[in-house]
Amino acid sequence: MKPATAIVGLLALLAVASGATGASAQSRQFGFLIGGMSAGDIEPTSVTSGAIGRDSAFTYQFFYGRSLADFKLVSLHFELPVVVATATSLENALPQMPKDYSGVFVTPGLMLRFLPGSPFVPYVSLGVGFAWFESSDVLAGGGTNTGSTGAFRGAAGIGGGVDFKLAPLIGLRLDIRDFRSGKPNFNIDTSGGQHNLLVSGGVVLRF
Asked: Does 14 or 137 have the greater pLDDT score?
């Protein structure tokens, strides 16, 4: 993982978002969620092998949001979700493949919240950004990974969920997202990109 790259990108996006949305009186949201991410099987194309499975990864999600417009029945928000996925182990991987990989997903976009004044607020969101994957230095066969381990890919995220208000400034969130992205470096050719399905929950603060 390249933490410096992720942090610099996050700070830059936050600065752009704050400047673009204008009025300081608009409400802001900050959240921290934990969950799990799963992706489909890997289909090798350069070698003869069956599908290669993946274990689910534990995730941390940091969330920033800012209100853009309130139409009473619905409200529009800028959102910046940053999801850190811990090691995803590869099942029955080929010896030349990495043992596992981790990733960071950053997809700024828009969120539409329905009945924002109610105790239960459903929402949908859509964003476009990037994913950074880091393959392990150890191969599935036990050797050292001498290939390229880092992979910077485009990513798009679509999702939805429900906010539960506990108090004026604090609430809970159940969040489901699908990140469509490029692939980590597996040291073999594989078909297509990948879907990264995330289910998480946590606390959201509003100011």
From this structure: 137
Is 57 within the bounds of a domain? Answer: yes
Q: What DSSP element (H or E) covers 85?
A: strand 74-89
How many domains, the chain?
1
Helix (H) or strand (E) holding 8: helix 3-21
- Return d(Cα 32, Cα 127) in angstroms, integer: 18
Q: Which residues, including other chains, have CB under 8 Å from residue 141's CB and lie 6 or more apart?
A: 94, 95, 96
Determine the structural domain holding residue 168 and report its residue range.
3-11+30-206
Residue 149 per-residue DSSP state: -
Q: Which residue has the tokens 């995730």?
A: 59
Instruction: Decide if 155 is inside a domain.
Output: yes
pLDDT category at 46 given cuts 50, 70, 90 is confident
Q: What CATH code is carried by the domain that includes residue 114?
A: 2.40.160.20
Query: pTM of the prediction?
Result: 0.84
Tokens of 84: 């850190």
